[in-house]
Amino acid sequence: MSGFNQLLLGGGLKQSIVDDINSNKDTVQRITDYVQKGQGKHQAYERLANFTDFWGPRISGSKVLEDSITDMMNILRSENLDNVDGEPVKVPDWRRGTEWATMVSPREQDFEILALGSSVGTQNETGGTLEAEIIVVTSFEELESMNDADVLGKIVVFNQGWDGYGHGKPYRDLGASAAAKKGAAAALIQSVADFTLYTPHTGQQVYQDNTAQIPVACITIEDAEFLNRMSHRGPVKLQLHMEAVTYPEKDSYNIIAEIIGSEYPDQVVVIGAHIDSWDVGMGVMDDGGGVFITLQAMTILKRLGLTPKRTLRLVLWTAEEEGLIGAKAYFEAHKNESDNFVIVMESDGGTFTPRGIGFSGTDDARMMIEAVMKLLSDFTQGTGVGESGSSPDTGEWEAIGVPVGNLWNANENYFYYHHTHADSMTMMDADVLDLCTIVWTSAAYVFANTDQRIPREGESIGGTTALVPNCISITLAFCLMILLKSRHDL
Amino acid sequence: MSGFNQLLLGGGLKQSIVDDINSNKDTVQRITDYVQKGQGKHQAYERLANFTDFWGPRISGSKVLEDSITDMMNILRSENLDNVDGEPVKVPDWRRGTEWATMVSPREQDFEILALGSSVGTQNETGGTLEAEIIVVTSFEELESMNDADVLGKIVVFNQGWDGYGHGKPYRDLGASAAAKKGAAAALIQSVADFTLYTPHTGQQVYQDNTAQIPVACITIEDAEFLNRMSHRGPVKLQLHMEAVTYPEKDSYNIIAEIIGSEYPDQVVVIGAHIDSWDVGMGVMDDGGGVFITLQAMTILKRLGLTPKRTLRLVLWTAEEEGLIGAKAYFEAHKNESDNFVIVMESDGGTFTPRGIGFSGTDDARMMIEAVMKLLSDFTQGTGVGESGSSPDTGEWEAIGVPVGNLWNANENYFYYHHTHADSMTMMDADVLDLCTIVWTSAAYVFANTDQRIPREGESIGGTTALVPNCISITLAFCLMILLKSRHDL
What ipTM was estimated for this complex? Predict the structure, then answer.
């Protein structure tokens, strides 16, 4: 919405809605006091450390993930939450196994690799080790322009550089299939990151149909650039050993827990995160922080005896990393209830210093979110509402028009840690996690507690359709422009 | 020197010295043009990449180090430098071999280690692998305060945090011996770094006399903090496997090359760096950058036909990392010539954006260096002269009163890369390396070309002893203070 419209609308919300939102001010203060001065201080951090240190990485298909899910359900039950349950999901069981790579000519140099999720291994090669020359490309276009004969049997190294995650992710996702189509034996992908200290970044890759499945791993920025320089000087030969295997699917669970609403129990505000992680690092940033501010939101409200008018539902999705498996299952199981889903929020973009809540929905809904976030202006930035509320596990809800939200935070360094061994408690700050907890808990509570539910496309707000104030504002603006113009003409 | 003294001295240098220094202005411009507009553009970067990519890490005692030394001498000869030579040095041959660590209880978790230089391995343990409980301390004092019985047979983990390199280095140097004195079986040291992305930092350690030699390795900040948290919850047991071995000393060489001075050939300005590196990373920052700006300094002057009045000598010390071995040998071999050493400069603190030349010497000498650096004000900061000119390989010269210098540069992120796999070409910038080359080459040339040689303690400057202007300035200041005081009293 433009500043001009905002000015004319004066916020646009009916005073009764504003008053209703503002009636939550004391509750937000209670939540804040509990987190900053009460038992809640550093509780998110302590719980996150206990959980991630105890379990370690929680990859889809592993016993550790399932044990950690059981542990989490026990925690939720011990907090006396309602309807704690695990909804069954079949999840992939891919394991990287032992893996190594070495340059064998023109000289010997070992280097770090991390197989990408769902990659096949090099089991079919002699001795289980692939030896081949490399060919380095900086883009799909460069690969496409090559003769198949020049790529045949080689290891394609993608040295695509960094121009944002959206630029790099397609290479991680599809680099193997693109290389296989040209006859390559394997692919190595520069880690999708803006900065590494020789830190490889794993992630999921997707084999395309009717294309050979070749081994694919990520390498560090340092080695991608090194191999690029080396290949411009002469032939470079690598050995690649990857014991990656995909086993039959395993049983897993999306975790559910609720605080049943006092007035509109059928209407649901969903807050969540994903419980699984990659098998490197401890899954602290991705997505332990999201899991634990969500757990805190539920337990703080429960412990403070704060029951919103609508139902607040925690969902901890399983197997996000390997294809949003839990999220898809959850959507299929609950899409027939979508009319009752007021907003679906996930925190999976880091828990750095909070800026507010990211939101995707109508302009009228955004006005309402902004009014809520004014209650939290001590902990937010600007309007307290970020441009986009999109998040991996809420994508299907967003696609059918359900409002979605996320934790908007200062995550400029997110890709330092993403899918790496550096995703550990060291990068997490206890005070900052408390700030995130305050924002996440308060926003969730108020979204679930307003008499006016957050509108979606075509819905009226507070009994007045959203179009009406917009029409008034546009008419007023038009009149004002004419008035100003005529005065200038004098 | 205080601002007050500077004011009174008005620069302090005799006009003839200033004029002589300023007569080098055109030469500095020729050097600058060659590097920024001529054949020298990005030459340091290209040569550094070719060298470090081709050879890789160059650890003391390795064939690679010796081959790279031969290669470097051939480069120096091909540039027609004078007196290219290798001065023999016996150097340590320590190899880390295979190494790994894993937490075996309360759960399994592999983690990264890097044995510290000169560490013994775990060969004497059952199956070559040590298994023991850990005890975590944050300081030597905490370790000292413990009962020996509580440390006996354990792995002492030092989680000393970061409070500057000077704070952490003693733990890396002496942690093993401190732990051994309390009966520990091994020691793990938090990497001496301000920031890691799960990047361990190796380095040299020193066993103390009459103390058991126990295996010692560094671990990441992430794991030091992890083990600290874990140990506060209950017993933690690790397995440590280190095949580190020290072999008999090997032959190595300090590399020498000169441009013989046109007027005072016996007087020498030494510029240098160390050619060896650790066995992790490519030895690009530590100390490839220093090596190649020094090489550039010599070759640029030679190619431009610029012969200073004094001799300019390149020294590339060997085996710096494992105890300044080359530097000590060079000092022993040449200390009887110390009267002729005008200044000894090493670049071993990074080649980030230059700020000028760091300098340690008398105030009078500093005045002279500042006058030289005014010629380079486009590429420097403030006076262009940093507070300290100390550097590892020049320490013995500094101790006997020879003026020392280094490349003063914006190396705030030096400890991101120091002694890690991330010490690669990725962290180096071609344009920035050109700026360093300009500063290093120009400073070295002018220091070698002034009629007045850089004075040392007790030496006169320009025919007037250094004490005289200082006496005058102090007397003047005293008179001024009395005058001002008496006016105030009126």
Answer: 0.92
